[in-house]
Amino acid sequence: MGFDPPHLTPDAGDEKVNETEITPEETSRGNLDAPTLKWEDTLSAVRKTRLNQPKTVALCGFAVSSRHMAPYDKRNLEIWGCNEAYNADYMKNKEGQFRVDRWFQMHLEEDWSRKNNPNDPKHPEWLGLKHNFPIVMQENFPSVPNAEAFPLTECDEMFFSNVWTIDLKDGKRKKWLDVYKHGYYTSSFAWMIAYAIWQQKWNRIEIWGFNMGTQSEYMYQKPGAEFWIGQAMARDIDIVIVDNSPILKGLMYGYEIANVLLPTQMRERIEVIQKEMKGLKDKALMQHGARLLAQYMRNKPEFLAKLPELERQLEIQHQAELASTATVNFYIGAEDITKIYLNHTIGRHDDSEGGWIDRLTMEVNKATFRIEAEEYKAHLDSVSGAKMELQRNLTLYTADPEAIASWKLRLHDIRNREIYWTGKLSLILGKLSQIEQFIFTTENRNANMTDERDYAHVVIPDLYSKEYEVLELGEVKDGEKTATTNEPTVNVGAGSNFGESGQPA
């Protein structure tokens, strides 16, 4: 969207300027030839050029929250983009024209020149075209006609020449650049804003499509981005940030965050958990009933002709019940540990509002629950392995009725045990995940690293990805990471065996 820079009024008595307005954008792109000026028009022409010279640059990234809102239709500012965004529809003005004044591709040549680039396999070809804008890169690559080497040495000297480090071995002070050789550039955004500050020509820098607020957009880059924004602010450059961006946002240390877990936080957490868990138990009971129905029909003589299909349906319902058990028990585990902490706070401090849980208590509980989770996971793996072997035998030895009957009884028992150990494991993972979340809060990391998805709600372990197979925690599945005890992923479902009260039926 952008803001128009303030317009100055020419002094009275100035000669009249040519009626045709030539913008710097049109001249730099070669759309129009620069007008031939008469001597008497020179002063007025200089004034008009000064009035129309862009003083605002908009840095445009990939974050879906604001990338489409950048001021692509404004002609009195510059648009800068990066990497493969030229393929995106959002980098066009209302007439559908690609709108950019400078491009950035700061990756290694081995990266941008590869043919298997998932974002654009033809990226090397695009870089090799002649464009009417410069492409800022690590160096002037011969294969890129518009390549412009980033002024790394100049930027390092400009921003880091007065930074020093202390060598712990000899206690001597050394120049930062002598030790580390370069400054602090952690993202494409960092390169872009550093370049803009180095130019010393902008009154305002607008930030569009750069959030650094999710894991997918490299949250670790956020501190570096904010460092460079601070550099611009120190040089009296106005910074414009969309209101849905987490940049420059964080809880106030000492005011809004604490190193201990307070009763108010625990009560809020219990309320959120109970709200999210509402209805899951009803759904779990329905899935449990569906599994029992399939089991009942499989054992009735009148359904003998449909036995293969009933066996398949029984396993499908069993897998659904496993997911339900994992989901509900995970929620219950998170709620249980929160209630335990709340009761412990009230009992320990005899104050329902002013007590707290210290970090050491949570760390001890976390270590204990991790050991239990490993134990339950081992039980679950052995039971699941036995089930898979029985299913294989039932497929191979179809001519032995006695063995098949025995194996079916054993399979029924193993399925119950699998549900039981899934519930036990999920309950512990729920407690462990909730403790991790509380530790995350008390570490104050949310003061400068805000992720709109991380720890926003109770997360559920995705234990099963295939019909008959239990995944190892942390195993890679379809390009995504499955559950770990630190970072469980979301799995929608409910449960039939609630808590660890006993063996399921």
Can you tell me about this structure?
This protein is of the alpha/beta class and 505 residues long. It folds into three domains: 19-53, no CATH class; 55-241; 263-444, no CATH class. Helix content is 44%, strand content 8%. Helix 10 runs antiparallel to helix 11 and helix 12 (359-396) runs antiparallel to helix 13.
Structural descriptors:
505 residues, alpha/beta, 3 domains, seven-stranded parallel beta sheet, extended, disordered C terminus
Class from secondary-structure proportions: alpha/beta
Order of helices and strands: HHEEEHHEEHEEHHEHEHHHHHEE
Relative strand content: 5-15%
Radius of gyration: 32 Å
What is the terminal-to-terminal distance? 62 Å
Main sheet makeup: 7 strands, parallel
Number of domains: 3
Query: Looking at the structure, what is the overall shape?
Result: extended
| SS field, number of helical segments | 13
- Strand arrangement within the widest β-sheet reads 5-4-3-2-1-8-9
What is the number of strand segments? 11
The low-confidence runs, each spanning 5 or more residues with pLDDT under 50, are 1-43, 45-50, 444-505
Q: Could you report the average pLDDT, rounded to the nearest whole number? A: 74
- Give helix % range: 40-55%
